[in-house]
Specification:
alpha+beta, 6 helices, 36% helix, globular
């Protein structure tokens, strides 16, 4: 079940950050992305959306983040995420690996996931990371960001209207779900409110 978030104006512009093009041959099904910026929900004020733009195109990839993640990204902008450089350089030297790229995928539950790929002894490996962690490392290390073409098209198809973005309820934290529930009740959207209540109950039971 998806929740619709109406976007406000762009709070922070990230397009000024440059990424180095990798020399290795990439999968033809990959689409390169550029970090565009961060916007805030026009109705859900605790919702922040990190936007990525198709390089050379107009298609957008939205990622829902919380205020803490937004603050980490804004802080990192001041130093071009250089705080990741020392750590990654130390790790790559100690374990003999070379970071290659960040890849976004859409899971079967329609969640956007992030994966860092690296070469070690000639073999390509990957680790799952948060969207914010992946962005910080990719920009701090000047590595490209990709998404599968089919996943980009899925996101484009479910978000055909500019300024309106759909997110699975499972991608929203409890604070955001509670805010969305109050708004749904206020707007007399009872079917939506019922779905949000079920998601909150599911989380509550899972934490017990």
């Amino acid at each position: 079940f998806f929740y619709i978030i109406y976007c406000g104006f762009l709070l922070f512009n990230l397009l000024c950050l440059s990424l180095q093009k990798e020399l290795m041959k990439m999968d033809p099904d990959f689409i390169e992305l550029q970090a565009q910026g961060i916007t805030q929900g026009a109705t859900l004020k605790s919702a922040y959306i990190l936007l990525f733009k198709e390089k050379g195109g107009n298609n957008l990839v939205p990622a829902l983040i919380n205020k803490e993640e937004k603050d980490i990204i804004v802080s990192g902008l001041r130093t071009n995420f250089s705080f990741t450089s020392g750590l990654i350089s130390s790790l790559s030297g100690a374990f003999n690996f070379q970071l290659q790229y960040l890849l976004f995928k859409v899971s079967p539950e329609s969640l956007l996931t992030a994966h860092l790929f690296f070469l070690q002894e000639g073999l390509l490996h990957s680790i799952n990371v948060s969207i914010t962690e992946g962005l910080a490392v990719a920009i701090g290390q000047h590595k490209p960001i990709y998404i599968y073409k089919k996943d980009l098209m899925f996101l484009v198809n479910i978000n055909p209207k500019e300024g309106v973005i759909k997110f699975p309820l499972s991608s929203m934290n409890l604070q955001l779900l509670q805010e969305a529930l109050e708004q749904a009740v206020h707007n007399e959207e009872y079917e939506l409110a019922d779905q949000i209540k079920k998601e909150i109950q599911r989380r509550t039971i899972a934490e017990e």
